[in-house]
Amino acid sequence: MTVHPDVKEILLDEKTIARRVAELGAQISKDYAGKSLTALVVLKGSFVFAADLLRAIDVQTKVEFIGLRSYGSRTSTSGVVEITMDVKYPLNGHDVLIIEDIVDTGLTLDYLKNNLATRKPASIKLASLLHKPERGVKDMSIDYLGFTVPNEFVIGYGLDFDGRYRNLPYVGIMKTP
Ligand code: IMP
Question: Would you say domain 14-153 falls under CATH 3.40.50.920?
């Protein structure tokens, strides 16, 4: 596989990701057996993970999207979050599974969880592909976690820097300029 010149090191290759995503899908299917699920895909970063994870889930599932933008420096959030695109349907009574790309400080998800709670869903759980535990500001419990990663800026498999690199099939550490 050719490695993008802006990638310092591949952390998770395609096969490793696919294996783990299949495991997460099987676990979610088991936990929600007999229920119906509303997957809430957080745009933009989680669209690749969500596309793979959803196809590994075999319970009745609706898919909704929410767009979030968190302000901060180019590689870190301030915790000030804006909803750029909201869910079109009421979530009250739904078993909601948030699908996120990465939990870094946890500030974005803290905002989202508090916001969703006001919509009175039956339950809220969280699936995140990645977690940077060293950076945790908010204590975030991740119900379905793909991988723990070191405190480095990562790109690929949906994750971007300045809107780029989302289409890389692997997760890699970005070279510092
Ligand atoms: P938070 O710090 O947990 O609030 O993370 C906010 C958002 O920043 C995440 O949902 C990602 O979209 C983005 N983010 C955090 N760390 C990285 C990274 O290493 N690469 C790409 N995006 C990141």
Answer: no
